[in-house]
Structures are given as structure tokens and as C-alpha cells.
Amino acid sequence: MNPGEAILFGLGAILIALTLLGVVGVPLTGWLAGSVTLAVAGAALTAGLRRASKHRLPKSSGLMASPWRGRLTPAEALLLLVIVLITGVAAWRAAFYPVSAMDAHAYDGRARWIVAERTLDLSIYNTPGLDGRSNLTYPPGYPLSLALVYWLGGTEGKVIDLVWLTALLLLLYDFVARRSDRLTGLLGVFLLIAAPEFWRHASLGLTNLAATAAIGGATLLATGRQSIWRPALLLGLATLLRIDSVVLALAVAIFLALRRRHARTLLMAAPALAVAIGWQLFLKASLGVASTSALRSSMLPDLKLLADATSAAFGAMSRQELYGWCFAVFGLGLVASVRRWRRLPEEVRTLILLVIIEFLALLVLYQQVDPAFGGGGGSYFANSLKRALFVLLPAAVAAGLLAFAARSADDPRP
């Protein structure tokens, strides 16, 4: 387990524990949050030490033994310095500027309310017309992560985004570097953190960055055959952060089950489904509402909405001021892989296909949203869908770079 993965699982365990305690009515206090945090940290440290003493990478795995050791080359050191500077500026922005994004006020306000009232009960808001379309009825994972900062003495909850960001960058680096080299791994991290819209979200206090860390991590881990439960748990965490993540979890599980011809792989969606169903039951019991109120009444696909969503998605993906070179690298890697598809490593082929499957799942999901929701289809696609595409960035960058790395390995020419 690499450092980024460990951070995600640790933070996820804290949020899941606090959610379960809150749902059953245990008062959520700073002492409780601190105790849960210390317990998870202690368990993680103990498990990590045991694993480190026993774990040896199989010689036949074809992976770099450790991308974390050894002296850096000048190119690697320079790239790492740039990454640290960009991340440092994002950290300063998150700590210095108050909440300004419109939706962020709902998450931050809910976090402050949880700290003050010590409960997840939504009925205390006493907000007229509150239904399943409101940010206040989203699962409590992200507001609880903001509340952790306040419980532990912080003044700006959104600095927790730096934890999500760090975990994602470490996980992406480890995944790419082990399958290529350290410079390629650092290049992947740079492409991701330097994407303008993604970097801005590191200090806005919105759910997109946290969901990207969980879904991106799950997608990378799902390419291997070692365990279905590691990506499954991250998909469950993603659903605790954003309820719509359950659609991506189902898409990933069904695709991999068909690709591997193994029905057990469908269990990868089990944690996400458990979170989604459990939260809907909680909403029904506390408010009498459901998240499905944001969807169209008809389950039949609307071809016009699907075409509008597709057009908006491709338009956003082509804009460098939004995603930098992330999708361009994926597209170029995909084109370079077409003629030599069967010679690509299985993990790289699976990763490329997962990016495409998740993209299609997002289009299907967003055409199903009620056209009157979020300011109408045009506004909704231009804003919410644009941010939803964040979840594809880590896997897209990794797939593109590894496709090029595999091509270079096959080509003996200097």
C-alpha cells in the first residue's frame, strides 16, 4: 500500500466511523473525532509496520521495487520542486481565503452546524422546501471532513482539501512510476496539479477534489487483479462524498466483471451501493425525501439531452484553461495505442477502457438529470458536468503516459 492509498483509507475510515456514529445518534464532539482519528492512525501505523516487515514485491511483477528511494536526477528534482511550489500556493490559498464558491457555503455551513449541534440529523435545519436536490441532503462525508478541521482547532475547514490532494498526487505518482520510471511519475503529477481548473478547486471547499481522489484512486487500483476490495472501499468512500458516485461504481464493477468473466467482481460495487441505499433510508426517515428527486421521471434516455451533455463534455475537455494537457495526453496516448493494442500491458489497456467507460457513465447520468435542476440543462452541463469530469483526470493522465511509456519500451530506436 503506497502512502497516498494509506491516507485515503485512513481518512475514509475516520469519516465512515463518524457517519455511522452520527446516524445511530451518538453526539459528534471534538473528543470523539479526536479519539477516532487517533485510533485509526494507530491501527494504520501498526498495520503498516507489520506489512513493511513482511512485504516483498514479487520479482515477476515487472514493477519498480520502490519509486520512493534513490537519488533524484536534476530533471526529477526540478520537476518535484515545481510540484511542491504549485501545491504550496494551493495550500496558502486554502488557508488564507475564506469560503467564496456558492455551493461551498452549503458544505462549510453544514460542517459548522455539525460541530455546533453535534448531530447529522437534517430535520434541525428547518429549511422550507428542503428536498433531495439540495446540497444539504448530500451524504455527510465531505462536510464531516471539513468538520474534522474545526474539531481539531482549525479555522478554515477547506484546508482538508490539501489532504485529499496530497493523497491523490502520491497515489498517482506511485502507480505511474512503478510501471515506468520516476520522471514519468512526476510528470503525471505535474500534469494533474497544473491543470488550472483542478488546481483552483484545491482551495474552493467543494466535493469535486475529494471525490476525484477517491474515484481516481479506485480506478487505478481496479486495473490490477490482486484484490477487488481495495478499489471497492474507495468507491464506497466516493459515494459517501458524492451520491452520484454510485453510478460510476456500478459502471466500473459491471465492466470489469464482463471483461474478466468473473461474477465476483460485481461485488466491487457493494460498498457504494450500501452507502447509497443506507443514506436514502436515512433521508426518508429524517426528511421524507430522496436524492432521486433530482432526476427525470422517465428512465428512458433523452437523446437531445445526451447530445447536449456530450457536446458540453467534449467542449470542456478541449479547453486547456480548464484541464491543461490532461485529456490531450490521454487522447494522444489512445491514438498511439490503436495499432499496438494487444502489445500493451493488460493494466494499461484496462485503464484506458475504464476512462472511456466512466466518461460514458457520466454522460448517461447527466442526461438523466431533470432539465429544470441547477439552472437548466445548459447551465448544469456547463458547470456541474465540467466539474464532474475531474474524476477522470488521474486515470486519463496515467493511461496516456503509460501508453507512451509502453510504446517507447517496444521501440528500440534511439
End-to-end separation in angstroms reads 35 Å
Largest β sheet strand count, sense and barrel closure: none
Strand % is under 5%
Measured on Cα atoms, how large is the radius of gyration? 21 Å
Average pLDDT level: 86
Bulk shape: globular
The low-confidence runs, each spanning 5 or more residues with pLDDT under 50, are: none
Count of DSSP strands: 0
Write the element-wise H/E pattern from the N-terminal end onward.
HHHHHHHHHHHHHHHHHH
Structural class: mainly alpha
Number of domains: 1
User: Helix proportion of residues, in percent?
Assistant: 55-70%
Number of helices: 18
Explain the overall architecture.
The chain is globular, with a radius of gyration of 21 Å. By secondary structure, it is mostly helical. The longest helix is centred in the first third of the chain and has 25 residues, at 30-54. It has one domain (3-41, 74-406). The model has no long low-confidence stretch (mean pLDDT 86). The protein has 18 helices and no strands.
